[in-house]
Design goal:
By secondary structure, the chain is mainly beta. It has no helices and ten strands.
C-alpha cells in the first residue's frame, strides 16, 4: 500500500498506470470517498485499487469521443489549494476522470 498526499504527489509518477483497466468507480458522497478498482497491465496483469479520501471535487464523463474504451492513457497530477491535489485520468476513449483530493491510496496484490 502506498499513501499519496500533497507532499508526496510526485511519487505517483513512479507507478506505471498506462493501459490499466478501470472496471468501476464507486463514490460515497457522505463519506467524501471514491474507490476505483483497476487491473494493472505492467509486465503482467494484476488487480489493484485506488482509494481517494477527503475528496472535494469529482468529474467523470462518458462521451467516448475517440470510441469505446476503459483503459488509462495518462494519469496526471497537479497542485490544488490547501492540502489538496488534482488527479486527472485520461482514458483511451478520450473520456476524463478528475478528482481533487487530500489523499490517494494505491494498493495491489503485487
Amino acid at each position: 500500500m502506498i499513501i499519496f498526499t500533497k507532499e508526496k504527489i510526485e511519487e505517483i509518477q513512479n507507478i506505471n498506470f498506462h493501459d490499466a483497466e478501470i472496471s468501476r468507480i464507486i463514490c460515497d458522497y457522505d463519506a467524501g470517498t471514491l474507490e476505483m478498482p483497476i487491473i494493472m497491465d505492467d509486465t503482467h496483469q494484476y488487480p489493484a485499487l485506488l482509494n481517494f479520501d477527503n475528496i472535494v471535487y469529482m468529474e467523470v464523463n462518458h462521451k467516448e469521443p475517440w470510441g469505446p474504451g476503459c483503459y488509462i492513457s495518462t494519469l496526471g497530477i497537479e497542485n490544488a489549494e490547501g492540502e489538496y491535489f488534482k488527479v486527472s485520468i485520461l482514458l483511451n476513449s478520450g473520456d476524463e476522470i478528475n478528482v481533487i483530493t487530500a489523499k490517494m491510496i494505491y494498493s495491489s496484490s503485487e
